[in-house]
Specification:
heterodimer; A: alpha/beta; Rossmann fold; 2 domains; six-stranded mixed beta sheet; 10 strands; about 40% helix; globular; B: mainly alpha; ABC transporter involved in vitamin B12 uptake, BtuC; about 0% strand; disordered C terminus; cell membrane (chain B); Branched-chain amino acid ABC transporter permease (chain B); transmembrane (chain B); membrane (chain B); LivM-like (chain B)
Amino acid sequence: MLKLENVDARYEGFKALDGVSMNVEAGELVVLLGANGAGKSTLFNTISGLLKASAGRISLNGEDVTGKKPSALVQAGVVQCPEGRKLFPEMSVLKNLMLGGYVHRRDRAGMKKTLDHVLEMFPILNDKKDDAAGSLSGGQQQMVAIGRALMGRPKLLMLDEPSLGLAPLVVKQVFEAVQSINREGTTVLLAEQNAFAALKIATRAYVIENGRLVMEGDREAMLGNEAVRKAYIGA
Amino acid sequence: MDRVLNFLASPAMKIVLLAAGILFPLVASSEYQIYVMALAFIWAIAVYGLNIITGYCGQLNLAHGGFFAIGAYAVGLLTVDYGWAFWPAFIAAGVIGAVLGFLVGIVSLRLKEHYFAIFTLCVGFIIYLLIEKWEELTHGTLGVISIAPPEGFGLVDFTETIPFYYLVLFFLVLAIWLISRISRSLVGRTFLAIRISDDLAQSLGINLMRNKVLAFVLSTTYAGLAGALLAGVVRFIGPDLAEITHTFDVITYLLVGGIGTLMGPLVGTLLITWITQAVQSFEEYRMIVFGPLLVVLVIFMPRGIVGTFLTWRGRRLASKAPAKQSASRVENKNSEEAGTHG
């Protein structure tokens, strides 16, 4: 579905991505592991078009999308849920969610359907839909952020560290939600530092270090890999 | 106390304000006061325009005074040199404001933050230079004299102060109504998303350039129409209208009233206009009073009078409400003010 070939990207002058090649098949849940500053967000921003790749080729279902505008990519079904949630704190939960459906704004019936589905997936948001997003707890805010991304009806959903700053129990809920989104047919690319929790729901994983993909493997191989365990699981 | 607060933020308050606007000529002590109020309304319309691009969309535009002058000159030159009547010239001023806004916008909005502000500062200065130096078109430093006033209908004669006052009041109400519609719509929330974060807005699929240009064109159209009204009442304009000081005046009105709020532009413009009137005897020295006041205001009330009021009221309601949930809910009921215009 998504294919990167030798992608380079510069961020504020230095090379933040160096020859990244990766492949995400439809229906997969692929985890991108990496420490702070390894290039996870840069890679996501490059795929979603916020950053321009300085070399290489990105294609979506065989079609070249290198250098396309972010809005065009969202139209094409690539939706990013940014790191740190980034909600509109003073807007209500409902308005936050509706903004996520921006590209489908003319399809009211479809938006209503997606909204019902999101509220069904996160019932707590239904209770709080008229509350200001900023008044919610961290976990609930993350649900709004994921729900907002789902409103764009992604074919490929990119989640950038959804577990950041959340309590372990909440992380578990969030990851269960991610897994169920994936099972319903949305391809997921998940960037995480929390390797153990992420790998448990993953199909495959890549490891990124200093802007390079240094390792790739399926869930079992990654969980069993000594280097991965040492670096990201701490056991 | 809470009743007063709730009333100030309620829709009924808008009706009270409108009634006050309608009744003002009856209670004004002189025709001069009505004239000053009409001028203040015209500037308020321009401030509403600036609020779209700078308040809601977050892009500091320093060419606003320039577009205001373009609107005034459009009416001045079309009526004086080309013999147009006021109303067609008025519409032309709006169209010219929109078209020039579009052309400047598609270039300048490629820049971000300070760079956009500096670019528009230069645009404003270029507009001033063009008006001052291009004598064949603009009459240069001589200015444009005996501009056609708005044609009245029936017994209504807009060269008289009171009918003109009501004409301007009509346009002001129209301007505010349109902005309140926009700010509550998806377009308004799109502008707000852009102000909060370019990147976030883009990840939602918002076409950044298209929406920024739309906000810019709306704001320059407002500026052009406000300038056109000014030309219709003062009937003499010179290149000083395009000087940067007018841009800074408009920004001051916006900051004092409350940037990004619905009623801020009106509150700021009226307040400063009348304070200026009150201290007119100080002439240029009044800036010695205004300067420090503005500094204090920006430090302690960065959201201006209306913004600070809404934040304060929101907090008060939140702390008073029995359960936390209902508190945030109450706050949200007012999101039309506290949120969308926040």
